[in-house]
Amino acid sequence: MDFLLDGIRAFTWQQAVMFAVGFTLIWLAIKKQCEPMLLLPMGFGAILVNIPFSGALNQVLPGVGETQGAIQWLFEVGIESSEILPLLLFIGIGAMIDFSPLFQRPIYFVFAAAAHFGIFATIVLACVLGFDLRDAAAIGIIGAADGPTTILVAQVLQSKYMGAIAVTAYSYMALVPIIQPAVIYLLTSRDERRIRMEPTKDSDIPRTVRILFPIAVTIVVGLISPAAVSLIGFLMFGNLIRECGVLESLSRTAQNELTNLITLLLGIIIAFTMKADQFVTRDTIMILGLGLFAFVCDTAAGLLFAKFLNLFLRKKINPMIGATGISAFPMSARVIHKLAMKEDPGNILIMQAVSANVAGQIASVAASGLVLSLVLKYLQ
Amino acid sequence: MDHVETVRISLTIMWQGMLGLFIITIIMAWLTATIIKFCKPKKDPN
Predict the structure, then answer these.
(1) Is the pLDDT score of A125 beyond 80?
(2) Residue A370 · residue A155 · CB < 8 Å
(3) B27 in the Ramachandran plot: left (φ > 0), alpha (ψ -120 to 50) or beta?
(4) Among A236, A265, A259, A268, residue whose Cα is nearest residue A358
(5) Surface of A (215-234) touching B: CB under 8 A
(6) How far is C-alpha A218 from the geometric centre of its chain's CA atoms?
(7) A121, A130, A366: residue with CB nearest B24
């Protein structure tokens, strides 16, 4: 009856750690409601792939040969060979985004550029800490605050840390309401946080603009950063479906069924990269630290850029708007709106914050494309 | 690629990437404003 004990005997302390990680992710998802749609499948997947001789992974069985494991097969087909799952998710995300607030204030695009400094600062720090260029770039993309982008870039660059990077990115995205206020309090005075911005009367945006915008973004970003074409193209394709006005049914499907299905699969498939031997390492701790550094740098750079602009502007900008240029939508805008209301209950910044926040969604994809182009150029 | 060379390249990626990102966002801001300007219905002078 020895076979009943095979699994228990093969159980290692590293796998026990991964079980703890899995339980923590499930607890965060259910109890704290932190990104539950991804952290829960990832947490459960972490347990699935770390059970000794797990049938969810490919195994070599005596007398039978290699058998296919469902999670490993899904990873190889859906992410490793084509990166199709994160890309399909982009269609759904694009179909969900309403760019109207950005059309009222197109200049807010520049805040999104500043608020992605964390990506590049983290790449440098990761290289200083000894990561090679490919892994450093994949780790830096955590600063895009965008889960599917992070997974896709890590896969394109063949980073061996994809699991740790994905967990770090989603965990810190869920912690935006804690990270951003801490950095904002550190870098701004109360008077700066109380700066009022004139409410703008939002005008109607013609449908032609809404249709031309996703096409124009795809062409501009694609021409400057060809490596980002699939990322930006799928995102904007989803948005075009939403805005064209003749594909209501497809738009609804992309926003609901497609997004839910891909999210459901993506979480559990990413768990394939959370095998104990790859995950329980000193590097994972460093990636957690670097991810936090990326988010802090993003917020700080956005804030400082807005403060810099205020040196030249007659009508001052509330520097907190600069911090919303990240891709964590709508969480970042909501955080800044609440902070502004806390300092001055009459100060309503929600529309300005949302404008910078949706710009951040495009900028994160553009930044990722630039990182891919540059890293691939230097790896040649 | 040795360590010093990797760090040097990462610094180059940082400034080139940030510059590229600012260029893309400024073009996008300008293009969006231009599209809106041309697509807005003309007000009737009467």
Answers:
(1) yes
(2) no
(3) alpha
(4) A236
(5) 216-217, 220-221, 224-225
(6) 20
(7) A366
Task: Look at residue A202 in the predicted model and tell me its pLDDT.
Answer: 63
- Work out the end-to-end distance of chain A between its first and last CA atoms, rounded to an integer number of angstroms: 56
DSSP state letter for A196: -
- Among A108, A109, A127, the residue with its CB nearest the CB of B6 is A127
CA distance A281 to A299: 28
Question: What is the ipTM, given to two decimal places?
Answer: 0.91
Could you tell me how far CA A122 lies from the centroid of its own chain?
15
A10 touches chain B (CB under 8 A): no
State both tokens at A67: 């058998």
CB A71 within 8 A of CB A44: no
Tokens 């983290």 found at: A122
Query: How far apart are the C-alpha atoms of B20 and A33, rounded to whole Å?
Result: 36
CA atoms within 13 A on the CB side of B2: 1
Residue of B nearest to A376 (CA): B13
Q: Is A59 helix (H, G, I), strand (E, B) or coil?
A: strand
The least confident of A31-40, A91-100, A137-146, A338-347 is: A31-40
Measure the CA–CA gap between A296 and A353, rounded to whole angstroms.
18
Identify all chain A residues contacting B1, using CB atoms and an 8 Å cutoff.
132-133
Largest Cα–Cα distance in chain B?
72
N residues, chain A = 380
- Tell whether the model's pLDDT for residue B1 goes beyond 80: no
**pTM over cut 0.95:** no
- Among A133, A205, A367, the residue with its CB nearest the CB of B21 is A367
- Tell me the C-alpha distance between A213 and B20, whole Å: 20
> Given CB atoms, is A142 within the 8 Å cutoff of chain B?
no
Task: Kindly write down the DSSP assignment for every residue of A241-290, as one continuous string.
Answer: HHHSSS-HHHHHHIIIIIHHHHHHHHHHHHGGG--HHHHSSHHHHHHHHH
Domain assignments of chain A as residue spans, ordered by start: 69-196+203-379
Nearest chain B residue (CA) to A305 = B22
pLDDT tens sequence across A289-337: 999 999 999 999 999 999 999 999 988 999 999 999 998 888 889 999 9
